[in-house]
Fold this protein.
Amino acid sequence: MQCENSYSTAAISKILPYVVGTGDPRSTSWDVVIGHSERVVFWGCDPLVTNDIDWHTTIHNAAGYIRALRDKGVTTISINPVQTDTAEYLGSEWIAPRPGTDCAMMLGMMHELEATGKADHAFLEKCCSGWKELRAYIMGDEDGVAKTPEWAAEKTGVPAERIRKLAHDLHEHRTMLMVGWGIQRIQYGEQPHWMAFALASVLGQIGLPGGGIGTNYQYSSGGAPLAKGPFLAGVPAKVKPALPFNDNWKGSTTIPVARFVECFLNPGKTIDFNGRKVTDPEVRLVLWAGGNPFAHQPDTMKLERAWKEPETVVVTDTVWTATARHADIVLPACTTFEHNDITSIGTYTNDGFVAMKQAIEPRFESRSDYWIFTELAKRLGVESQYTEGLDEMGWIRRLYEGAMKMGRAGKIAMPDFDEFWKKGYVMFDVADKDRNYVAFEAFRKDPKANALSTESGLIQLYSPKIASYGYDDCKGHPCFFEPTEGVSRATKDAPLALMACKSRYRMHSQLDGTVSHDFANIEDREPLWIHPDDAAARGIRNGDIVLVSNKRGAALAGAYVTERILKGVVVLHHGAWFDPQDVKGRRIDVHGNSNTLTMDEPTSKLACGNIASTANVEVSKWTGELPDVSVYREPRIVR
């Protein structure tokens, strides 16, 4: 069985192909933003924290551009329930809508622009399809509810006049909307980015230098110019099966990755997924390599129960993650320091290649991933089909020489493999056209000649294809759906809305087992950001240990009392290693894993993405004996 989607971008990668023809459109170059943008809006976007992440190695290209943005004095606005590090650094104006209400705020802005004659009808007519249908929803003709700034204020908590002022300010100035990924890891996560493209279309600046929208400025130095070089391939992931396929397989062979817990618990259940039906198969053997679902899967206590359903679980990893601790068999893998490899520099920038040379011998019983899977293939009788006759260095050489051949076709000179390996790296130049790249510029100039890969070839503000699915949680045009949990759905038992932002001290759960956690943790617990008023109402002081709980789970955390969070909202940064213990008859994560509290529900029937940041919780001061955090110690081994 294979899994589709990722925990990072499940919603956006499924919705944007309908909207603009690709799930991850290239962003306008930072050079152009610095040169032309008069307003930069960081909507759910904190690039100073999240740009340290890259699928490959990185030279952190974006950092200098953010300094340049500050030095030039460009007006920046941060729209986020949290005052971000980027907003503090840039001195951005902070607008704090309630979590999960971004679409309502965008609708209020579009209503104001349309009602005052400021909507760019020329762009909407030339470059968009479906404005008529979306307009009917915005103005209230569809459902009888006009999405006015007053309506948006009631949903978001942002004053109507501020929504009006922002709409006109962005209209009057060349504006770049930088939209982060956190706002799509929520319930109905498909809607915010679709709605953001709609807002950018109404402003009419898409395809203009410094205007429009970008959805990856916060990751892998998105927006830094793409270098002129070949791309490095990887070992093929999809190949013809070497052994006969199991004809007795029942159910689908591919499921959305965030629904695997339901698959374990309810084999045979059929769900909707992106216009098709998917039936969960029965899974008896799990092989999980290089991931930590006990950090990123919502409702971790439910996952802990589901993890016992398969007969055997095999985990390959470098450290004792919570996932490895819940395995039947652990295959210890080498770190990147213990074997040779090769990588690109920059996911979006492709600045060059690096030879990742082995620094030390494998420690203890660990082996490289390639060695592990070669040995498994050997035992299955398919070693030659797996290795194709190549050892680890043979594959590295093949991948490099494949890129070199591609570069030669593009008249890009590269050293041969031996020279590259000796020097340790090769860097690529940046062409002027890439340094001055403007997203959708050619499309704006001639939409017919440069049609998008959408139903109409235009930006889809209404998708007949999505509408034909008949989903009640993802309709034919972007909508505001009230989250089932959030500030407006506060209850007596769970009155606070939880957000799970990225920590500045680690990459998801990576590095949490190192000294990085010492920079923020309070008595070995993940810090919980809480507003002074909410803390005072509960008798909580800065540095106290608190219990964060709801009907799904409970976690201990350390109180960090701050005005950098909207009242009624708390933040527990995601990625703390899961350390469940039975305390006073209750299963509690004693370390502060945020996903013990989040909902294991799909974002919608379209993407079936994960929900990492929609939950209601209560916070109370912990007065009992404080359990010891054991997750950093080697577990007891049963042989």
